[in-house]
Amino acid sequence: MTKQEIVKIGKLANQSFPKATKNGIWGDPRKATKKDGINILNEIIENLSKKCQTSLTEGTL
Predict the structure, then answer these.
(1) Model confidence at 61: pLDDT above 60
(2) Does residue 24 sit in helix, strand or coil?
(3) Which of 30, 37, 50, 57 is the most exposed place for a label (fewest CB within 10 A)?
């Protein structure tokens, strides 16, 4: 993929992940490891907690 294609898909994924992936899956899950899953879950939790904190401090939910 070109850099432009990656940027375009990234923007689309930020708006609608299913539209960007067509099936809701990004990549080949058969290649995933337990360590990958833990890292991804940790990143999701970290980003969610930051978003919640920002929403609470800005007064928007």
Answers:
(1) no
(2) coil
(3) 30
